[in-house]
Specification:
Elements: E1 13-16, E2 26-29, E3 32-37, E4 41-46, E5 55-58, E6 69-73, H1 83-91, E7 97-101, H2 102-105, H3 113-121, E8 125-131, H4 139-148, E9 166-172, H5 195-203, E10 207-208, E11 212-214, H6 222-242
Parallel strand pairs: 6-7, 6-8, 8-9, 9-10, 9-11
Antiparallel strand pairs: 1-2, 3-4, 4-5
């Protein structure tokens, strides 16, 4: 057992021990010291537990699925989209990421509510990706809010479908950042226009991440667009790293 053992620290877990275990019932494990890795099991013992013996843990306990991302994309003129399309293209090839382009799916605004709710139910992180239209989102995304985030499912007494998920607003704004300030064309900081979108998420019990906004979309250089592509992926990876992995069914206590 000890020959060729591997030493590593594993993030905190809580696991119900097998009935055959000496310590029956729920056993909180702060950290594990791994002593060996087999084909189907990891042999480990709790760190700091005097006299603790090495036990076999199912390997899938340490390989829980990564959080899944759903991108809800809305641009009313996708053929003319530059910045938003570049951000979409940067997110599209990422692992564990699903994409739904609303203006492609629903050119007549007739949203398939069941399909949208099913997609949401599978996601851990939801990205609302759209250009800024009149200090908000495009009409179809607002219609999506109205139709999909329904009472009794997304909010209201007993509604749990979205509770605990995370939302991130990724947007492109035509105006330069300096125009969103006192004395600028829009007279207020961009943060002042975020509240309706933020509270849509919070009212449904979701966590809210600070928005990622690319300003000056009408005049961005190729280099600025490439930088935005790289930054949105970097920030997404950072957000995902902060989220707990979704436990696999076999790893449930």
């Amino acid at each position: 057992m000890r020959r060729g053992r591997h030493r590593a620290q594993v993030r905190p877990i809580q696991r119900r021990w097998p009935a055959s275990s000496r310590a029956r019932g729920s056993f909180p494990v702060a950290r594990l010291s791994i002593w060996g890795i087999g084909k189907h099991h990891v042999h480990a013992r709790p760190v700091g537990k005097a006299g603790a013996i090495v036990r076999a843990f199912p390997l899938n306990l340490f390989t829980a699925p990564m959080p899944t991302t759903l991108v809800i994309h809305a641009h009313p003129r996708p053929g003319h989209s530059v910045v938003t399309q570049a951000l979409f293209d940067a997110l599209a090839p990422l692992d564990h990421t699903a994409l739904r382009s609303l203006y492609t799916l629903y050119p007549d605004f007739d949203i398939d509510v069941a399909a949208e709710q099913e997609a949401l139910s599978r996601a851990d992180l939801i990205i609302w990706l759209a250009p800024v239209h009149w200090y908000s989102v495009p009409a179809l995304m607002k219609h999506w809010f109205d139709q999909v985030l329904t009472h009794g499912w997304a909010y209201g007494h007993g509604a749990q479908a979205l509770r605990g998920k995370t939302v991130w607003w990724v947007a492109s704004a035509g105006g330069a950042e300096a125009t969103y300030a006192p004395g600028g064309a829009h007279m207020r900081p961009f943060a002042d226009y975020v509240a309706p979108i933020e509270h849509t998420a919070r009212f449904c019990g979701m966590h809210w991440l600070p928005p990622f906004v690319v300003h000056g979309g009408h005049s961005c250089s190729t280099q600025q667009i490439d930088d935005a592509r790289a930054e949105v992926v970097q920030r997404l990876n950072h957000h995902l790293a902060q989220m707990p992995a979704r436990p696999s069914p076999e790893a449930q206590p």
